[in-house]
Design goal:
Helix content: 25-40%
Shape: globular
Largest sheet: 5 strands, mixed, barrel
Radius of gyration: 17 Å
Distance between the termini: 8 Å
CATH class: Alpha Beta
Low-confidence stretches: none
Strand content: 25-35%
CATH superfamily: Nucleoside phosphorylase domain
Number of domains: 1
CATH architecture: 3-Layer(aba) Sandwich
Number of helices: 7
Structural class: alpha/beta
């Protein structure tokens, strides 16, 4: 069993890599991969960088090199539902693009010829939502696009097209599409770092990394512990 984990940010990657035994680092072009064991399972970690293209290319490289049995995306997202607070977690039961429009014959966010939304692997979703943690874990729709959402106008446009959306990020959609194409079970697990449209939203995001990053990693580690014991 090999578990692939992709995240966008360096701090997240370093925290996960520090857990591995027999750690080995390999480079392929722009990307760095860290492999090793944790909880008796082989892990292949990769920091993709920010955005859909980085995420997609990185996922393809990871799949080709390490043939993971499952692929999990961990990281942060902006919460766009009034019920969410910073440090809540959204487990992406479905993932969609908020910045794709292929014309009137397709649904909002749908790449022609592909599903309008990409569904998480049922077993991975059940493991994530069954975690016993101090934070709230909510299954729902994550929307992705190549935009850092800051303003109420941007938020309003997304919510108008995807009223059920809980969170926005910049990678989950591309990763879900790659996993759909390659037949790899996938889950996006995103901790809410900020709430776009709120007063002081950008300060909220910066404060998360200054004060809550270690606490958020404890949640990610809980997921990793569950994956290595239940898969």
């Amino acid at each position: 069993m090999t578990i692939g984990i992709i995240n966008a940010m360096q701090k997240e990657h370093e925290q996960l890599a520090a857990l591995l035994q027999g750690k080995r680092v390999e480079r392929q072009g722009h990307f760095s991969f860290t492999t090793g064991t944790y909880g008796g399972r082989q892990l292949a970690l990769m920091q993709s960088g920010i955005g859909k293209v980085n995420a997609a290319v990185g996922a393809v490289e990871l799949i080709h090199r390490y043939a993971p049995d499952v692929l999990v995306n961990t990281g942060v997202a902006g919460g766009i539902d009034a019920s969410l607070r910073v440090m809540d977690v959204v487990a992406g039961a479905t993932v969609a693009y908020h910045d794709v429009d292929c014309g009137p014959e397709n649904e909002p966010g749908q790449v022609q010829g592909l599903p309008a939304t990409f569904a998480a692997d049922g077993r991975l979703l059940a493991i994530a939502t069954g975690l016993e943690t101090e934070v709230r874990i909510v299954p729902g729709l994550i929307c992705s696009g190549d935009q850092f959402i800051t303003g109420r106008q941007q938020l309003g446009l997304i919510k108008a097209r995807f009223p059920q959306a809980l969170a926005v990020d910049m990678e989950s959609g591309a990763l879900a599409q790659v996993c759909h194409l390659y037949g790899v079970p996938f889950l996006s697990f995103r901790i809410i770092s900020d709430t776009p449209g709120a007063e002081g939203h950008f300060d909220q995001y910066l404060n998360f990394w200054d004060t809550m990053a270690n606490r958020s990693f404890a949640v990610t580690r809980s997921l990793l512990d569950a994956l290595t014991t239940q898969l």
